[in-house]
Amino acid sequence: MKTSTPVIRVLLVDDSALVRRGVRSVITAHSQHGAIQVVGEAANAAEAMSEVLRLKPDVVLLDLRLPDGSGIDICRRIHTEVPETRVLVLTSFVDDNLVYNAVIAGAHGYLMKEVDPPALLEAITKAAAGQSILTPDITQRVMKMLRSGNGGKDGTSDLSSLSQQERRVLACVAEGLTNKQTGERLNLSENTVKNYLINVFEKLQVKRRSQAAALYVEQVGRPQSSALPPGP
């Protein structure tokens, strides 16, 4: 008996009804077998939080410019109050501070509205699985802000303080794997992976997976599944 794949439920947050209608149409037209479905829309910050709490969607596509508040604040509240919901920023405006603050607030990805439909659906799918979507350009912007000291540290954190196993776990995170996938690859329990990541975050003085992944990519390069550090 074939098991069905759970539908990924998406909430659209944008003050433009035209944009919301367009994104909904793209998802409906390109999502195979309805694997991704738009379950709600919001035009402002107040509606966004109300709908997030009511619907508890898997992914929120969030514009940062809202008429009654900042999308950064909404992202932070979602990360705190509904942590199982993933946030993908979808905006037409890019700025180093906005990119950095969105990542710090818990965003799992930062996309421009010019993104093509397949890339948008792929980002939604990855975010729903707990993966971070950091393009090379976004990684570069985050690292620039980290080095400038806006991350609350001196910007000199490197990977030399990590144990070999911690580096292997971080390499998997930078590749976009979830804790469960990382555990399966490294033959570790999911809880053990979480514990390794707590140590990694503390040593690197970061708070988010995306920050740690950005550090790894900046200092080592984007990992491939066949190029992970060797085991002990």
Could you please describe the fold and organization of this structure?
By secondary structure, the protein is α/β, with parallel strands linked by helices. 50% of the residues lie in helices and 13% in strands. The chain has helices spanning 17-30, 45-55, 71-81, 96-104, 117-128, 136-148, 164-175, 179-186, 190-204, 209-219; strands spanning 8-13, 36-42, 59-62, 65-66, 69-70, 86-91, 109-112. It folds into 2 domains: 8-133, Response regulator (Rossmann fold); 145-219, Arc Repressor Mutant, subunit A (Orthogonal Bundle), CATH 1.10.10. β1, α1 and β2 form a beta-alpha-beta unit. The strands form 2 sheets. A 5-stranded parallel β-sheet has the order 2-1-3-6-7, sandwiched between helices. The longest helix is centred in the last third of the chain and has 15 residues, at 190-204.
- Could you give the count of β-strands? 7
Going by CATH, the architecture of the largest domain would be 3-Layer(aba) Sandwich
- Distance between the ends: 40 Å
The CATH superfamily name of the largest domain is Response regulator
How many domains make up the coordinates? 2
Order of helices and strands: EHEHEEEHEHEHHHHHH
> Helix count?
10
Strand fraction? 5-15%
Segments where pLDDT lies below 50 for 5+ residues? Answer: 150-156, 226-232
CATH class value of the largest domain: Alpha Beta
Biggest beta-sheet profile = 5 strands, parallel
CATH topology label of the largest domain: Rossmann fold
Bin the helical content.
40-55%
